[in-house]
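Bug #77: duplicate submission created two jobs. Keeping one. Sequence:
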Amino acid sequence: MCADLNFHNTNGSYGPHSWHPFPAKFPPQLPEFLIVRLSNPGDIVLDPMFGSGTTLVEAARLGRQAIGCDIDPLARIIAETKLTPIDPLLALRDGQSVLLAAKTDYWEDGPKLRQELNSRFDSQTRTFLDYWFLPQHQLELLSLLRHIEALPQKSTREFLRVVFSATIIAKSGGVSLARDLAHTRPHRDTSKLPGSAFVEFAKRLERNVAVVGDRKSHDNGSTFPTKAGRAPASSEAHCLGEIRSASAANTGLASGSVDLIVTSPPYANNAIDYMRAHKFSLVWFGWTIADLANFRTRYIGNDAVSKSKYVNLPDQCEKTITKLSKLDAKKGLTLRRYFGEMSAVIAEMRRVLKQGGPAVIIIGASKLRGIDAETHKGLAAIGESSGLELAGIGVRRLDRNRRMMPARWGDQSHSQIEARINEEYVVGLVRS
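Kept job's structure:
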């Protein structure tokens, strides 16, 4: 692949792509580039690990049928909301009404809100909230959430849930006591003075509404769909893609039904631990801490090894695992689990692809105990052993100043975490 895949001088924060922080997401120009060149309008584009939904949003915007799978509850909420047209004026009106009603509750009905806080969450989740959120912000968030949940129109309700979540998981710090939450590396800072949830919600509401239907500068003039002018404000909008609560290794799709796959698996070294951040929002949406801990053990790239199963792997993978295991046996098992789970994912990708259909895997570089896991070579070898043909491997240099990556600490400009993820690879496979 000889095309420039870096996209350093482009803006990736247009339309719904900017609605909610999400770590390590690739620029929308990358899936756009691939979708335009490797598929036709009306084709089915699959992302079996869709994360923030970047591939799905671009596929829908470009007139393809977008299908995505993910087991992460917050990822599904965000992606489905991004794919659902909304009326920006209605969303702004309802958001401002929610804000006004929530403020009224906060100032006039504090005892009732405190009583609901105590009854709404189990003891473990309540302990989590008390550790990370000041009492004032808990009451503010609950008062907002109660009025969001009462909205009758699903599309607006879900849009405001994303606004609500983005006031918690925010690049600028959010309304919890956590620092570095948006990078999935939360640590508690009791000296932090979080802003009012009401103020942060109002800011995020205006910001998200302002980019609804943003026109992207593109030759074909494709825009993000909005509901305004297409249907009466009272009618309900529908998601422009198919969001599946399914693992990447078991999508439930028919064999030979997909024209193109564009996806980005997790890092092999668990550098981005999504659930550590996502639980800050998900507990407000009804999940318990125990539920979310169970979800985390099912994520590909998780460092738990108790569920590791031995599978036959290509020599490329075995060579790296053996080298790593000599230094750290547990890390060797972690990498074995990762390659084993990705073997099942790639086998599923091959099954659902049409004959001649391409699959593109964007994978970050990972180092464990100072050893390069060479995940791009490992996944390419797994693809070939699964019956796919390797079309090529491209390299992308990551722009740390614009992409949400785990933060540097102090003056560690060449820290271990930066060394792990300063580039990623674009692996092209084809079902021959």
